[in-house]
Amino acid sequence: MKTIDIVLAFLIFALILTCAALLTLSAAPLVSDAPVSPSPEETEAPPAPTLTTRPSPSPAPSPSPTPDPSREKLLTLVNPWNSVPEEWEPELTGIYVYTLYVPERGEIYVDSCCFDDLVAMLDACYDAGGNPYICAGYRTHDYQQMLFNNKVKRVIEETGCDPDAAEMIAARSVAVPGTSEHELGLAVDIIDWDYVYLDEGQEDTYTQQWLMENCWDYGFILRYPNDKKDITGIIYEPWHYRYVGRELAAEIRDSGLCFEEYLESLS
Ligand SMILES: [Zn+2]
Q: What positions carry a catalytic annotation?
């Protein structure tokens, strides 16, 4: 064999070995300690929860679309010194049970936020042997004006006093337009069907006694108690109930304060 053939054979052999080595390397698994970039999905995943205490359970969805009333709405004060807020717009729902329908006055409405509690309260009162009827709910400003004008007229007829004095007397029992809780849609007058008079005799009826004892559990307060006339500016009305929601009603009951005093205690 010539020398050149030997060299050529060696080179071919070396080339075959090199190719075999390269093929072996390319088939080997890739092992690296370099950081692997996360996939886009991983970078967008939410961080792991870091809560150390169990979160409170989510409230069950309400079957009603009516949103919960705000605390600010429930605590809105309307009295002889505080008028109905100008921007106030009640969302009204008609009450067709336990109502005293008077044609010229029309149907009785309340703000939707108190509808369920009101009906539940009257159902419970009825089941307990009471005979409750709503004789007033939401009033428009114009209707309150008409009631007030009528009252002033009656006072003048009965006492012969001048109109200014008559308005002052009338305001003790019929709110001056713009200062009636009935314009909020959060107040109702409830009477006993067996005693259909808006006077202090209501407190002797079983219906009122039940309501005064239990209204708090349904989010209502007896708004004008007998011993708070100077603070509320309104005579004792054992028939006028104001909705503030169950939580606040329980707080007010436990405090023993009337609404004005309770609000004062918060400030
Ligand atoms: Zn009333």
A: 237
What is the Å distance from ligand 1's center to 177 Cα? 13
CB-hemisphere CA count at 13 Å for 151?
A: 20
Tell me how far the alpha carbon of residue 240 lies from the centroid of ligand 1, in angstroms: 4
Sign of torsion, CA 95 98 102 103? positive
d(CA 8, CA 89): 103
Using the mean position of ligand 1's atoms as its centre, give its distance from the Cα of residue 181 in Å. Answer: 7
Per-residue pLDDT of the chain (267 residues; tens, 9 = 90+): 555 565 555 555 554 444 344 333 333 333 333 332 333 222 223 233 222 232 333 444 445 555 678 999 999 999 999 999 999 999 999 998 898 777 767 789 999 999 999 999 999 999 999 999 999 999 999 988 998 999 999 999 999 999 999 999 998 888 899 999 999 999 999 999 999 999 999 999 999 999 999 999 999 999 999 999 999 999 999 999 999 999 999 999 999 999 999 999 998
Q: How many CB atoms lie within 10 A of CB 262?
A: 18
CA neighbor of 132 nearest in space, from 185, 210, 217: 210
> Tokens 């407190």, residue?
203
Q: Which domains does the chain have, with CATH numbers?
A: 91-139+180-266 (3.30.1380.10)
Distance 188 CA to ligand 1 centre (A): 6
The pTM of this model reads 0.71
138 near 99, Cβ under 8 Å?
Answer: no
246-255 and 259-266 helices, crossing angle to 10°: 100
